[in-house]
Amino acid sequence: MDQRLRKYLAYGTGAGIEIGPENLRVALLKARPKGVQSLGETVIERFRERPAAEWGMEYAAFFKQLGCSHVAAWVVLPREEMIVRQIAMPGVRESDLEAAIRFQLDSLHPYGEDAEVAFAWKRLGKGANILIGLMRQEALNRYTALFAEAGVKIASFTFSAAVLYSSARIFSDPPEGFLLIREPENGERGLEVYGESQGRPVFSALLEMSRERAASVAASELRLPADTQPELLPELTRSAALNCACPWLTLDANLLPESLRSSTSRARYIPTMVLGGLLAILAAAVLLQSGYEDRRYVAALEAEIRKLEPQAAKVKQLDAAAASMLGRSRQLDAFRLRTKQDLDALNEVSRLLAPPNWLNSFDLMRSTLQIGGEADQAAALLKLLDGSPHFANSEFTIPIARMQNGEAFRIRAQREGLEEK
Fold this sequence. Notes:
Number of strands: 17
Number of domains: 2
Order of helices and strands: HEEEHEEHEEHEHEEEHEHHEEHEEE
Helix content: 25-40%
Radius of gyration: 27 Å
Number of helices: 9
CATH architecture of the largest domain: 2-Layer Sandwich
Shape: flat
Largest sheet: 5 strands, mixed
CATH topology of the largest domain: Nucleotidyltransferase, domain 5
Strand order of the largest sheet: 3-2-1-4-8
C-alpha cells in the first residue's frame, strides 16, 4: 500500500499493555493522519502479587477517567517467554501457509514434540518471508485467565517484533537497515535487540551479553556494517497502542484465540460505510448505462472463442507432450550434476573453515547446509560463507556460546550456484 494512503488511513484510538516481570505498563493514544496524540500512561505495580480484581479496578478507573472504557487493548507478551522465528516459504499459497507452518512447528521451538505450543504468524510484505511468534500454551492460558479475571478487554496477545515492524511503517517508511536495543530493567533478563535490513527483514532476540557484544552479533546477523550504532528501542506500550488504533495497517500476529478476543466499538466505521454505499450506487449507475454494449461485445467475443477452441485444444496437447519430454530430459541431466555439486560444496567448506576452525557436525542437503563446531571468532563465519559463490543467507540457528578454546556455533546456509537443466 502506498505510504501516503497508509498515513490517511491512520485513524483510531488504541490501548497498549506491556507485561513486565513485576509491573504492567499501559498507554492510551489517538492516531490521526497528522500524527499521534498521547491520552495517558500508567503503571500497574506488582500485578502478579495482587488479586486480579484489585488491579483490574485500577485499570478500569484509568480508562474511565479518559473516556475510553470501550477500547480493547493489545498486549505485548514478555520477550523472555516468546520464541520469534523468521522462515522463508517461497511458492506456498496463502491458503496453505497455516498447514505448512504446523507441519514444521516442532523444528521451530526447543520445547519437545509433546509440548503444547501456541503460535501466530504473518507474511512480511509481499515476499516469501514469514514472521512467527511461539509461546508455551500453558503460559498463554495463564495470562488469558489472569486478564479475564481482572475484567480487562483484550483484542490481541502479540509480541514485540510484530508490533515494532508494523508501527515503523504507519506514518513513514523505515530506513533500509537499522538496529535497536533496550537495556534490561526491573528484573528483565538480557538485552532485547530488534533490527531490519535488506538481507534479513526482521531480527529479534534476547541476548545476555554486553551492549557492545550484542550490537556486534546483531549487526552480523543483519549483514550491517560492523560500526553500526544501535538506537534505543521505542516504548512497546505506545507501539502496541498505535497498532491497536490502526489494526488494518499492521501485522496482527495474534496468539489469543478468536473466541476470546474483544473488539473496540465499530461506530467509527459508520461514515466509511455510508460513503462506501454511495460509491456503490454511483458505480451501479455507470455499469447499467453501458451494460447493453458490454453484453453485445462479450457475446461476439465468445462466439469467436468457440470457433477457435478445437485448434487451441490440439496445440495444448502438443505443448503438454513436449513439456513432459523436456522435463524428463532436464531431470536426468540434473541427477548427473548433483554428485559434482555436492563435492564442490564439501571442498568449499573445507577451504573456508580451515584450522584452527573445526566441525563436529556437517549436514549437506540439496538446498541447505547445516554445520556446527568451534571457531576463534564465530561471528565472522557468516560473512565468510556468504562471500562464497556456493552459499548465501547464512544464519546462526543457536546463539554463539563461548567455550574454553573458542566459540561454539551452529550455522544454517542456503546453497547457491546449483545448476539445474
